[in-house]
Amino acid sequence: MIRLISLIAALIWSAAAHADQMRLAVTTSFHNSGLADILLPEIQADLGLQVQLLVVGTGQALRLGRAGDVDAILVHSRAAEEAFVAEGYGTHRREIMYNDFVLVGPAGDPAAVGPQSAIGNALRRIAETQAIFVSRGDDSGTHRRELSLWASAGIGIDTADPAWYRAAGAGMGATLNVASGMGGYVLTDRASWLNFANKDGLTILFQGDPALFNQYAYLPVDPAQHAHVKHRLAQKLEGWLVSPKAQAMIGAYEIGGQRLFTPNATDADAPAEG
Amino acid sequence: MGEIWQGLTAAFRLIVTFDADLVEITLRSLQVTLTAVAIACAIALPLGAWLAIQRFRYRRTVIALLNALMGLPPVVVGLIVYLFLSRQGPFGALNLIFTPTAMIIAQVIIVTPLIASIAHQAIRELWADYHDLLISLNATKRQRMATLIWDARRALMTAALAGFGRAIGEVGAVMIVGGNIDHVSRILTTAIALETSKGNFALALGLGFVLIGLAIAVNLMIHGLGRTEREGTW
Amino acid sequence: MTAILPLQVRAAKVRRRGKTIVGPVDLDLTDVGTTIVMGPNGAGKTTLLHMLHGLARLSGGAIAWNMPTPEAQTRQAFVFQAPVVLRRSVRDNIAYPLILHGTLKSEARQRATDWAERVGLAEALKRPATVLSGGEKQKLALARALIREPQVLFLDEPTANLDGRSTREIETILKRTAAEGTRIVMTTHNIGQARRLASEVIFLYRGRVHEATRADAFFAGPKTPEAAAFIKGDIVE
């Protein structure tokens, strides 16, 4: 009997003491998709790993990784990610999946972006009609993507009149709230949009242009920079995310019958052994 | 209007179903804020008393500074605490970032000036009454402070409650230093911010009503405790 | 117990904002009796008491007790004109000086209870002191002053705002205290009270001691015209 109790105690103790924990900074757009709520329990079950999510913008996620306050980051801003690795803060960059951005606006579509053939044309229509456009304005991955789309469309957004170009300086949800309050256009990732509850007169007006694809990548923080980071756990999580099981789960995730993410992890950009 | 009604029903539903997540974040809110207020009182009350009885050269400057610090934006406090506790910061090795302890530290910094300032005000008035008697009785500095703190206890309780009110409803600092991690550092205010960002206004509002109810309950409880002390007049 | 008296005061002065409030004062206080300090308003009576007790800083001169001043201060007590009551029960108010001294709480409370009985506050023991009447507050202040059994007791107008009955009760306590050997130094405006209690009188006028003499001699034949006028009840400025 005593042996049984001590065995149980040892099991509980070891479970408590050895429950691996790691911190992962993710973008608001990923978290708002709700996919994390599906994946985290599976990770816990398969790896015995408790992943603590810090939900922040891409800019802040990269900062947290640079400071060594998280063990890995999952973000979507390719140029910034490559810089992160090049500066030695991340060991490597591993593509996991992509979703896409959509252009949302008032159902009446005053700038007539719906019939446009490409996102560049749609944005030019907004600029020409000076219809209200709400930008994240928070240096997030979505914000960076929006800026590069304006640039490709040949519009100098830096000098745009704030009367129609409004920088909210806020997360995706808050920005959507602002857009719905003002009846403005807004660029959002599809996941955040589908999960957003306060749509209130807004609807998807433009989508499908390959320029709107949004690649998510996983970057473990380099233990050479920060000896304390849990690199082994970060590698374990990466292995799980690119596993056939996880990739299938990502591909099967739907909201309201709509598929959100397309898994595209390949062994091609797996880190070299050693 | 409909949203507010939905918020009320959401709050009601969360409470009557004893929602496990709600209980968890509510308890964590209480744990963080009560600990922070207790620590802040342990610093602020003696500080307020000391400032009332001690004459020194920069006393007015210190008091002015304290009053100015009352208006410190919590976000700034959060950022500074983050920079200190971040793994790159001077106290990074303590591994406190994104823990409830970090949130307590930030809240202590936010509410200590508030409590100290109100305490100083109340104790200064009492000291004017007690000055001659305590000097005549040869009370030591420590004894004077203890007497003043004990005899001003009602006003000081109000100071502590003001601190509690500021801390329990604070979101900017705890969001930065706590990280709003589910099951680790999520509290009522950060959960409200999260739900608002998701556009779940009803749930956010429901949590808000829970927060208000919690603040009222704590206030009533403290006042109830005060009243059982039989004397009603001071 | 070492005696705190005699007290020698030599050329003692208190100045505030460049103005001399009291002094220079020369005074000797010996070990028995009740000294009443009299004089018109603004003569400096309260300041004189504060000076002797060490509450007002000397601007000149010296005050010498029969022992080092810090030690002497612990054997004095002071009752202020407006009684200071702590926001505590009557019993805890009276026990307070003992608690400061490190007496055990239970013993301090026991002795406070005894003293409350002696000054007629036995009924009020557990009531908050702030709700007492003026007379009761002054009796509480008296008990709190006496609980350390001081050798010298200073009182500043202890009955100034009290009714006849309270005044009589306080005078009775003071007479008993003096009889038990405590040296009393008090100010009063009430000449009748001075006659009833004084064994010595100090007549203070414009900050200076005009007369310091035995009470019977003072009332029988004041040596200065100001004192004579004061006793007669004339207005003295």
Short overview:
The complex is a heterotrimer of chains A (about 270), B (about 230) and C (about 240). Chain B is an all-alpha fold. Chain B has helices at about 1-15, 20-55, 60-70, 75-85, 100-135, 140-150, 155-170, 170-180, 190-195, 200-225.
Features:
heterotrimer, A: 274 residues, alpha/beta, D-Maltodextrin-Binding Protein, domain 2, 2 domains, 10-stranded mixed sheet, two-stranded antiparallel ribbon, 11 helices, C: 237 residues, 6-stranded mixed sheet, 3-stranded antiparallel sheet, 9 helices, 9 strands, globular
Protein model, in words:
The complex is a heterotrimer of chains A (274), B (234) and C (237). With 274 residues, chain A is α/β, with parallel strands linked by helices. Helix content of chain A is 42%, strand content 23%. Chain A has helices at 2-18, 28-32, 35-47, 58-67, 78-86, 119-129, 141-152, 172-182, 190-195, 231-241, 244-252, and strands spanning 20-27, 49-56, 72-75, 94-106, 133-135, 165-167, 185-189, 202-206, 213-220, 254-255, 258-259, 262-263. In chain A, strands 1, 2, 3, 4, 5, 6, 7, 8, 9 and 12 form a ten-stranded mixed beta sheet that branches. In chain A, strands 10-11 form a two-stranded antiparallel ribbon. The longest helix of chain A has 17 residues, at 2-18. Chain B has 234 residues and is mainly α. Chain B is built from ten helices and no strands. In chain B, helix 5 crosses helix 8 (172-178) and helix 7 (153-168) runs antiparallel to helix 10 (201-227). Chain C contains nine helices and nine strands. In chain C, a hairpin with a 2-residue loop joins strand 8 (200-205) and strand 9 (208-214). Chain C starts with 6 loop residues before the first strand and ends in a 5-residue tail after the last helix. The A-B interface holds A 23, 28, 32, 52-56, 66-69, 170-174, 176-177, 195-199, 226, 228 and B 86-89, 92, 95, 97-98, 179-182, 184, 194, 196-201.
